[in-house]
Amino acid sequence: MTQILSINPANGREMERFESWDETRIEQALDETSRAATGWAGESFAARASRLRAVAGILRARAPELARLITEEMGKPVTESDAEIEKCAQVCEYYAEHGEAFLADEPIQSDADRSFVTFPPLGTVLAIMPWNFPFWQVF
Fold this sequence. Notes:
By secondary structure, the chain is mostly helical. The protein has a domain at 44-102 and 120-139. Helices cover 53% and strands 11% of the residues. It contains four helices and four strands. The strands form two sheets. It has a two-stranded antiparallel ribbon with strand order 1-2. A two-stranded antiparallel ribbon has the order 3-4. It is extended and about 65 Å long.
């Protein structure tokens, strides 16, 4: 199986090797995320908000380590790497605070007794994105 190498651009040293995934492994990961999304959909907004706040805390607690990893893998200045981790923590807190309001049903006028726009979970979403913000692309 092919491997993906992580190489420090500053010194050319190999940092890590990762096995590439074949179609079967990709399908397995998509199935796992689909099951996880179903579980998350059943949790209260308060429970989800609590988890997001916990993630923000973990990001901040591990910021020096995570920022160093970004810098070593990409060559990004450590101040920018630190800022990226903080931005991820802030977005977790933002959605913990505002997520319930963003997802609330929106009543609309119509001839029906009751009409509204609802925002059901989408489930797993695949995004192909640039790699210059490796943590931010996940959040």
